[in-house]
Amino acid sequence: MSKTKLQNEISSALFDMYDIKKVLDDKTKAMPKDNEGTEFSIGDCIDSVIDLLEELDNVDEQKDQFKNKVKEAVEKTGLVRIKNGSCESEADYFAGAMVAMTTFNEMFCGADDDNAMDIVPPMWLIGPMSGRSLKDNWG
Fold this sequence. Notes:
- With 139 residues, this protein is mostly helical.
- It has two domains: 53 residues, no CATH class; 80 residues.
- 71% of the residues lie in helices and 0% in strands.
């Protein structure tokens, strides 16, 4: 999975923070972060920024977990709707799920028009276009 520009910038900033932490001596890191009587040190601030950047740098793993969980839920619900006769159009059903997934991908994973669909399972597009039902593939 290729990283977006934002993800590359986050990774770069994270490595910059590792470098800053490494070159500062313990005395500097122990200094207060401001002159307003705070109890937080420069080292505490560096650690907080590193923690945040590490979490943001982990977006690919979070995206994969989201994709797998949503795929499972959408397909399970789709099968129930098909079996109960309440799914009038599988294509419309999947289109709604795809809009939600691509919106998530753009808003929270930094995807753009070129890669917004990389979170969508290919069979959700191919199945309805080829006339195959979800129940034929997963039921």
